[in-house]
Specification:
The protein folds into two domains: about 55 residues, 2,3-Dihydroxybiphenyl 1,2-Dioxygenase, domain 1 (Roll); about 50 residues, 2,3-Dihydroxybiphenyl 1,2-Dioxygenase, domain 1 (Roll), CATH 3.10.180.10. The protein is about 15% helix and about 40% strand. The radius of gyration is 16 Å and the shape is globular.
Length: about 130
Amino acid sequence: MFKRIDHIELLTAAPERTIDFYVGVLGFCERERTRIPETPFGPLDLVYLELGDTTLEVMCYSQAKSIPPRGAEQQLGWQCLALEVEDIDRALRVLGEKGVRAAWGPVKRPDYARAEIRDPDGNPIELRQWYRRQ
């Protein structure tokens, strides 16, 4: 019945900064921009970014005020976006050259390695390298 996750929505008050990060740093490709002129919260700008077969929908309401950065504490609801990488050490090195530091990790286990970075709004992004799938 259910096939896959179609897309993930990311609400931001700074869409160009967010798009620059996901495209310029993480390698997403911009697919489409559109505007919904009337919503209950005012006009809504949407930008669809793709990485492989995953779509990230960046959303911004025209009247949006700054959103407080997400804290390090866990909250109910979605915790992070996770990206599979080919080589965790290389990924962290390339990200470091672009000014993005690991929030923690890498943690290496027999089957995988993982680390976490943050996007410009403080949203956690897990990086995971699989050595072997179970």
